[in-house]
Amino acid sequence: MATKSSDSSHEQPPLSYRKSVEIKATHDQFFVWREFLWGGIAGAFGEGMMHPVDTLKTRLQSQIIMNATQRQKSIPQMLRTVWVGDGLKGFYRGIAPGVTGSLATGATYFGFIESTKKWIEESHPSLAGHWAHFIAGAVGDTLGSFVYVPCEVIKQRMQIQGTSSSWSSFISRNSVPVKPRGDMYGYYTGMFQAGCSIWKEQGPKGLYAGYWSTLARDVPFAGLMVVFYEALKDLTDQGNKKFPQYGVNSSIEGLVLGGLAGGLSAYLTTPLDVVKTRLQVQGSTIKYKGWLDAVGQILRKEGPEGFFRGSVPRVMWYLPASALTFMAVEFLRDNFREKGNNNNNVVSNLSIERKTSSTSVHEG
Protein backbone atom coordinates (compact mmCIF):
# COMPACT_ATOMS: atom_id res chain seq x y z
CA MET A 1 0.00 0.00 0.00
CA ALA A 2 2.87 2.33 0.82
CA THR A 3 4.39 1.75 -2.62
CA LYS A 4 1.08 2.44 -4.33
CA SER A 5 0.67 5.70 -2.42
CA SER A 6 4.19 6.72 -3.38
CA ASP A 7 3.57 5.99 -7.08
CA SER A 8 0.32 7.93 -7.12
CA SER A 9 1.95 10.92 -5.45
CA HIS A 10 4.61 10.97 -8.21
CA GLU A 11 2.02 10.69 -10.97
CA GLN A 12 -0.24 13.43 -9.60
CA PRO A 13 1.44 16.51 -8.05
CA PRO A 14 -0.33 18.12 -5.10
CA LEU A 15 -3.15 20.53 -5.94
CA SER A 16 -1.36 23.45 -4.21
CA TYR A 17 1.71 22.91 -6.41
CA ARG A 18 -0.33 22.83 -9.65
CA LYS A 19 -2.16 25.98 -8.64
CA SER A 20 1.09 27.81 -7.89
CA VAL A 21 2.48 26.91 -11.34
CA GLU A 22 -0.73 28.11 -12.99
CA ILE A 23 -0.60 31.36 -11.01
CA LYS A 24 3.02 31.93 -12.03
CA ALA A 25 2.24 31.31 -15.74
CA THR A 26 -0.73 33.69 -15.58
CA HIS A 27 1.40 36.23 -13.71
CA ASP A 28 4.13 36.10 -16.36
CA GLN A 29 1.60 36.52 -19.17
CA PHE A 30 0.08 39.49 -17.32
CA PHE A 31 3.41 41.27 -17.13
CA VAL A 32 4.20 40.54 -20.81
CA TRP A 33 0.94 42.24 -21.73
CA ARG A 34 1.70 45.00 -19.27
CA GLU A 35 4.94 45.64 -21.17
CA PHE A 36 2.85 46.06 -24.34
CA LEU A 37 0.58 48.47 -22.50
CA TRP A 38 3.40 50.37 -20.82
CA GLY A 39 5.29 50.71 -24.11
CA GLY A 40 2.18 52.02 -25.86
CA ILE A 41 1.43 54.57 -23.14
CA ALA A 42 5.05 55.71 -23.00
CA GLY A 43 5.19 56.09 -26.79
CA ALA A 44 1.95 58.07 -26.92
CA PHE A 45 3.05 60.27 -24.01
CA GLY A 46 6.37 61.06 -25.68
CA GLU A 47 4.67 61.98 -28.96
CA GLY A 48 2.10 64.17 -27.22
CA MET A 49 4.72 66.08 -25.28
CA MET A 50 7.10 66.59 -28.21
CA HIS A 51 4.61 67.06 -31.07
CA PRO A 52 5.35 70.81 -31.54
CA VAL A 53 9.02 69.96 -32.16
CA ASP A 54 7.99 67.27 -34.64
CA THR A 55 5.80 69.81 -36.46
CA LEU A 56 8.77 72.13 -36.76
CA LYS A 57 10.92 69.28 -38.15
CA THR A 58 8.25 68.31 -40.71
CA ARG A 59 7.85 71.90 -41.89
CA LEU A 60 11.62 72.31 -42.29
CA GLN A 61 12.01 69.09 -44.25
CA SER A 62 9.03 69.61 -46.58
CA GLN A 63 9.33 73.34 -47.32
CA ILE A 64 11.08 72.77 -50.65
CA ILE A 65 7.95 70.93 -51.87
CA MET A 66 5.65 73.68 -50.62
CA ASN A 67 7.81 76.66 -51.70
CA ALA A 68 10.39 75.41 -54.18
CA THR A 69 11.20 78.88 -55.53
CA GLN A 70 11.72 80.52 -52.14
CA ARG A 71 14.84 80.54 -49.99
CA GLN A 72 14.66 77.78 -47.39
CA LYS A 73 13.91 78.97 -43.85
CA SER A 74 16.10 78.38 -40.81
CA ILE A 75 14.78 77.03 -37.50
CA PRO A 76 14.08 80.50 -35.94
CA GLN A 77 12.44 81.69 -39.17
CA MET A 78 10.21 78.62 -39.36
CA LEU A 79 9.25 79.00 -35.71
CA ARG A 80 8.16 82.56 -36.39
CA THR A 81 6.29 81.54 -39.57
CA VAL A 82 4.22 78.90 -37.75
CA TRP A 83 3.54 81.18 -34.77
CA VAL A 84 2.52 84.22 -36.85
CA GLY A 85 0.47 82.20 -39.33
CA ASP A 86 -1.20 79.69 -37.05
CA GLY A 87 -0.47 80.53 -33.43
CA LEU A 88 -0.20 77.72 -30.87
CA LYS A 89 -2.72 75.60 -32.82
CA GLY A 90 -0.31 75.30 -35.70
CA PHE A 91 2.23 73.42 -33.60
CA TYR A 92 -0.37 70.86 -32.53
CA ARG A 93 -1.89 70.11 -35.93
CA GLY A 94 -1.91 66.34 -36.53
CA ILE A 95 -1.44 65.39 -32.88
CA ALA A 96 -4.28 62.79 -32.92
CA PRO A 97 -2.79 60.58 -35.68
CA GLY A 98 0.66 61.18 -34.20
CA VAL A 99 -0.35 59.85 -30.78
CA THR A 100 -2.25 56.92 -32.33
CA GLY A 101 0.75 55.86 -34.42
CA SER A 102 3.20 56.20 -31.54
CA LEU A 103 0.93 54.18 -29.25
CA ALA A 104 0.93 51.28 -31.75
CA THR A 105 4.69 51.44 -32.35
CA GLY A 106 5.54 51.76 -28.65
CA ALA A 107 3.40 48.75 -27.79
CA THR A 108 4.87 46.45 -30.45
CA TYR A 109 8.43 47.75 -29.98
CA PHE A 110 8.65 47.04 -26.25
CA GLY A 111 6.14 44.20 -26.31
CA PHE A 112 8.16 42.10 -28.75
CA ILE A 113 11.70 43.27 -28.05
CA GLU A 114 12.41 41.07 -25.02
CA SER A 115 10.71 37.92 -26.35
CA THR A 116 12.40 38.30 -29.76
CA LYS A 117 15.79 38.89 -28.16
CA LYS A 118 15.47 35.77 -25.96
CA TRP A 119 14.29 33.65 -28.89
CA ILE A 120 17.25 34.73 -31.05
CA GLU A 121 19.77 34.12 -28.27
CA GLU A 122 18.34 30.64 -27.56
CA SER A 123 17.77 29.42 -31.13
CA HIS A 124 20.72 31.21 -32.80
CA PRO A 125 23.52 31.62 -30.23
CA SER A 126 25.86 32.98 -32.93
CA LEU A 127 23.65 36.07 -33.20
CA ALA A 128 23.66 36.77 -29.45
CA GLY A 129 24.75 40.22 -28.33
CA HIS A 130 24.47 43.32 -30.51
CA TRP A 131 22.96 41.47 -33.48
CA ALA A 132 20.18 40.05 -31.30
CA HIS A 133 19.48 43.54 -29.94
CA PHE A 134 19.42 45.05 -33.44
CA ILE A 135 17.09 42.39 -34.88
CA ALA A 136 14.75 42.51 -31.87
CA GLY A 137 14.36 46.28 -32.16
CA ALA A 138 13.84 46.07 -35.93
CA VAL A 139 11.17 43.34 -35.62
CA GLY A 140 9.22 45.22 -32.95
CA ASP A 141 9.19 48.43 -34.98
CA THR A 142 8.29 46.70 -38.25
CA LEU A 143 5.20 45.09 -36.71
CA GLY A 144 3.94 48.50 -35.61
CA SER A 145 4.45 50.02 -39.07
CA PHE A 146 1.12 48.75 -40.41
CA VAL A 147 -0.68 51.21 -38.11
CA TYR A 148 2.10 53.77 -37.79
CA VAL A 149 2.64 54.59 -41.50
CA PRO A 150 -0.96 55.65 -42.34
CA CYS A 151 -1.00 57.70 -39.14
CA GLU A 152 2.32 59.28 -40.11
CA VAL A 153 1.04 60.22 -43.58
CA ILE A 154 -2.08 61.86 -42.11
CA LYS A 155 -0.10 63.58 -39.34
CA GLN A 156 2.50 65.11 -41.65
CA ARG A 157 0.00 66.38 -44.19
CA MET A 158 -1.98 68.02 -41.40
CA GLN A 159 1.22 69.50 -39.94
CA ILE A 160 2.27 71.28 -43.13
CA GLN A 161 -1.25 72.67 -43.67
CA GLY A 162 -1.50 74.45 -40.34
CA THR A 163 -4.87 76.10 -39.70
CA SER A 164 -7.54 76.43 -42.40
CA SER A 165 -6.93 80.17 -42.82
CA SER A 166 -3.18 79.78 -43.34
CA TRP A 167 -3.72 76.89 -45.78
CA SER A 168 -6.21 78.95 -47.80
CA SER A 169 -3.74 81.83 -47.80
CA PHE A 170 -0.95 79.52 -48.99
CA ILE A 171 -3.10 78.13 -51.82
CA SER A 172 -4.11 81.57 -53.09
CA ARG A 173 -0.66 83.11 -52.59
CA ASN A 174 1.10 80.37 -54.54
CA SER A 175 -1.69 79.74 -57.08
CA VAL A 176 -1.71 76.06 -56.16
CA PRO A 177 -4.54 74.08 -57.82
CA VAL A 178 -6.32 71.94 -55.24
CA LYS A 179 -9.12 70.36 -57.23
CA PRO A 180 -10.25 68.96 -59.65
CA ARG A 181 -6.73 68.23 -60.93
CA GLY A 182 -5.69 67.19 -57.45
CA ASP A 183 -2.14 68.52 -57.68
CA MET A 184 -2.41 69.35 -53.97
CA TYR A 185 -4.80 67.86 -51.43
CA GLY A 186 -7.68 69.77 -49.85
CA TYR A 187 -7.74 70.93 -46.24
CA TYR A 188 -8.08 68.19 -43.62
CA THR A 189 -10.37 69.01 -40.71
CA GLY A 190 -9.43 65.98 -38.61
CA MET A 191 -7.80 62.58 -38.48
CA PHE A 192 -10.73 60.49 -39.78
CA GLN A 193 -11.74 63.01 -42.45
CA ALA A 194 -8.13 63.09 -43.65
CA GLY A 195 -7.92 59.30 -43.75
CA CYS A 196 -11.18 58.97 -45.70
CA SER A 197 -10.16 61.75 -48.09
CA ILE A 198 -6.78 60.18 -48.86
CA TRP A 199 -8.40 56.75 -49.29
CA LYS A 200 -11.01 58.17 -51.68
CA GLU A 201 -8.51 60.10 -53.80
CA GLN A 202 -5.52 57.76 -53.79
CA GLY A 203 -6.66 54.47 -52.28
CA PRO A 204 -4.48 52.36 -49.95
CA LYS A 205 -1.42 53.54 -51.88
CA GLY A 206 -2.02 57.08 -50.59
CA LEU A 207 -2.26 56.02 -46.93
CA TYR A 208 0.85 53.89 -47.27
CA ALA A 209 2.82 56.46 -49.24
CA GLY A 210 6.49 56.13 -48.42
CA TYR A 211 5.93 52.81 -46.61
CA TRP A 212 9.23 51.28 -47.69
CA SER A 213 11.07 54.54 -47.05
CA THR A 214 9.55 54.54 -43.54
CA LEU A 215 10.87 51.03 -42.94
CA ALA A 216 14.22 52.07 -44.44
CA ARG A 217 14.34 54.77 -41.75
CA ASP A 218 12.75 53.01 -38.79
CA VAL A 219 14.39 49.58 -39.02
CA PRO A 220 17.94 51.02 -38.74
CA PHE A 221 16.76 53.56 -36.16
CA ALA A 222 15.02 51.00 -33.94
CA GLY A 223 17.87 48.53 -34.22
CA LEU A 224 20.56 51.14 -33.54
CA MET A 225 18.68 52.51 -30.54
CA VAL A 226 18.57 49.09 -28.85
CA VAL A 227 22.23 48.42 -29.71
CA PHE A 228 23.36 51.80 -28.32
CA TYR A 229 21.17 51.43 -25.24
CA GLU A 230 22.44 47.94 -24.41
CA ALA A 231 26.06 48.98 -25.09
CA LEU A 232 25.71 52.01 -22.80
CA LYS A 233 24.13 49.77 -20.15
CA ASP A 234 27.11 47.40 -20.36
CA LEU A 235 29.49 50.34 -19.86
CA THR A 236 27.40 51.59 -16.95
CA ASP A 237 27.38 48.14 -15.32
CA GLN A 238 31.17 48.00 -15.57
CA GLY A 239 31.38 51.45 -14.01
CA ASN A 240 29.04 50.45 -11.20
CA LYS A 241 31.28 47.47 -10.35
CA LYS A 242 34.36 49.70 -10.09
CA PHE A 243 32.59 52.61 -8.41
CA PRO A 244 29.50 51.20 -6.62
CA GLN A 245 29.11 54.39 -4.57
CA TYR A 246 28.06 56.25 -7.74
CA GLY A 247 25.34 53.79 -8.73
CA VAL A 248 21.89 55.20 -9.55
CA ASN A 249 18.35 53.87 -9.73
CA SER A 250 17.66 51.86 -12.92
CA SER A 251 14.81 54.22 -13.86
CA ILE A 252 17.20 57.20 -13.78
CA GLU A 253 19.71 55.12 -15.71
CA GLY A 254 17.02 54.41 -18.33
CA LEU A 255 16.21 58.12 -18.54
CA VAL A 256 19.82 59.14 -19.28
CA LEU A 257 20.91 56.20 -21.43
CA GLY A 258 17.61 56.07 -23.33
CA GLY A 259 17.92 59.76 -24.19
CA LEU A 260 21.51 59.33 -25.43
CA ALA A 261 20.67 56.23 -27.46
CA GLY A 262 17.59 57.84 -29.02
CA GLY A 263 19.32 61.14 -29.82
CA LEU A 264 22.35 59.50 -31.46
CA SER A 265 20.21 57.07 -33.49
CA ALA A 266 17.92 59.92 -34.58
CA TYR A 267 20.81 62.02 -35.88
CA LEU A 268 22.41 59.15 -37.82
CA THR A 269 19.10 58.29 -39.54
CA THR A 270 18.08 61.90 -40.38
CA PRO A 271 18.88 61.49 -44.12
CA LEU A 272 16.45 58.56 -44.26
CA ASP A 273 13.84 60.64 -42.44
CA VAL A 274 14.18 63.51 -44.95
CA VAL A 275 13.56 61.17 -47.89
CA LYS A 276 10.56 59.57 -46.15
CA THR A 277 8.98 62.93 -45.30
CA ARG A 278 9.34 64.27 -48.85
CA LEU A 279 7.69 61.18 -50.32
CA GLN A 280 4.78 61.28 -47.86
CA VAL A 281 3.83 64.97 -48.08
CA GLN A 282 3.99 65.35 -51.88
CA GLY A 283 0.48 63.93 -52.32
CA SER A 284 -0.52 63.38 -55.96
CA THR A 285 1.99 66.02 -57.11
CA ILE A 286 4.68 63.55 -58.12
CA LYS A 287 7.88 65.46 -57.53
CA TYR A 288 9.81 62.33 -56.60
CA LYS A 289 9.18 59.08 -58.50
CA GLY A 290 10.56 56.90 -55.74
CA TRP A 291 13.14 56.50 -53.01
CA LEU A 292 16.23 56.49 -55.26
CA ASP A 293 14.90 59.40 -57.33
CA ALA A 294 14.33 61.42 -54.15
CA VAL A 295 17.87 60.70 -52.95
CA GLY A 296 19.30 61.75 -56.33
CA GLN A 297 17.28 64.98 -56.55
CA ILE A 298 18.08 66.05 -52.99
CA LEU A 299 21.79 65.44 -53.55
CA ARG A 300 21.86 67.34 -56.88
CA LYS A 301 19.72 70.32 -55.85
CA GLU A 302 20.56 70.75 -52.16
CA GLY A 303 23.83 68.95 -51.64
CA PRO A 304 24.69 66.79 -48.59
CA GLU A 305 23.22 69.37 -46.21
CA GLY A 306 19.78 68.72 -47.71
CA PHE A 307 19.78 65.29 -46.10
CA PHE A 308 20.21 66.82 -42.64
CA ARG A 309 17.39 69.38 -42.78
CA GLY A 310 15.44 69.17 -39.55
CA SER A 311 18.18 67.19 -37.79
CA VAL A 312 18.22 69.54 -34.77
CA PRO A 313 14.46 69.34 -34.02
CA ARG A 314 14.54 65.60 -34.80
CA VAL A 315 17.24 65.04 -32.16
CA MET A 316 15.44 67.47 -29.80
CA TRP A 317 12.32 65.31 -30.19
CA TYR A 318 13.96 61.92 -29.68
CA LEU A 319 16.20 62.84 -26.74
CA PRO A 320 13.39 63.44 -24.23
CA ALA A 321 10.90 61.05 -25.87
CA SER A 322 13.34 58.12 -25.76
CA ALA A 323 14.49 59.09 -22.26
CA LEU A 324 10.95 59.03 -20.87
CA THR A 325 10.08 55.80 -22.69
CA PHE A 326 13.10 53.84 -21.47
CA MET A 327 12.67 55.21 -17.95
CA ALA A 328 9.10 53.87 -17.88
CA VAL A 329 10.14 50.48 -19.24
CA GLU A 330 12.99 50.10 -16.74
CA PHE A 331 10.57 50.94 -13.93
CA LEU A 332 8.25 48.19 -15.18
CA ARG A 333 11.07 45.66 -15.47
CA ASP A 334 12.19 46.37 -11.91
CA ASN A 335 8.71 45.58 -10.59
CA PHE A 336 8.48 42.50 -12.79
CA ARG A 337 11.76 41.10 -11.50
CA GLU A 338 10.78 41.61 -7.84
CA LYS A 339 7.38 39.95 -8.20
CA GLY A 340 8.78 37.23 -10.44
CA ASN A 341 11.40 36.36 -7.83
CA ASN A 342 8.70 36.15 -5.14
CA ASN A 343 6.73 33.70 -7.26
CA ASN A 344 9.83 31.58 -7.88
CA ASN A 345 10.37 31.33 -4.12
CA VAL A 346 6.79 30.15 -3.64
CA VAL A 347 7.16 27.43 -6.28
CA SER A 348 10.53 26.33 -4.86
CA ASN A 349 9.08 26.02 -1.35
CA LEU A 350 6.14 24.01 -2.63
CA SER A 351 8.51 21.70 -4.53
CA ILE A 352 10.48 21.03 -1.34
CA GLU A 353 7.25 20.34 0.56
CA ARG A 354 6.13 17.99 -2.17
CA LYS A 355 9.38 16.00 -2.06
CA THR A 356 9.24 15.84 1.73
CA SER A 357 5.65 14.57 1.77
CA SER A 358 6.44 12.01 -0.94
CA THR A 359 9.41 10.67 1.07
CA SER A 360 7.27 10.44 4.21
CA VAL A 361 4.64 8.39 2.42
CA HIS A 362 7.26 6.05 0.99
CA GLU A 363 8.89 5.54 4.40
CA GLY A 364 5.50 4.96 6.03
From TrEMBL:
Q: Does the keyword Transmembrane apply?
A: yes
This protein's GO cellular component annotations are: membrane
InterPro entries named in the record? MCP_transmembrane
Q: Which UniProt keywords apply?
A: Membrane, Repeat, Transmembrane, Transmembrane helix, Transport
* Stretches forming Solcar repeats: 34-119, 128-235, 249-335
Q: Which Pfam families match?
A: Mito_carr
The record ties this protein, via PROSITE patterns, to: SOLCAR
Family listed: Belongs to the mitochondrial carrier (TC 2.A.29) family.
What is this protein called in UniProt?
A: Mitochondrial substrate/solute carrier
Source organism of the structure: Arabidopsis suecica
User: Lineage from the top down?
Assistant: Eukaryota, Viridiplantae, Streptophyta, Embryophyta, Tracheophyta
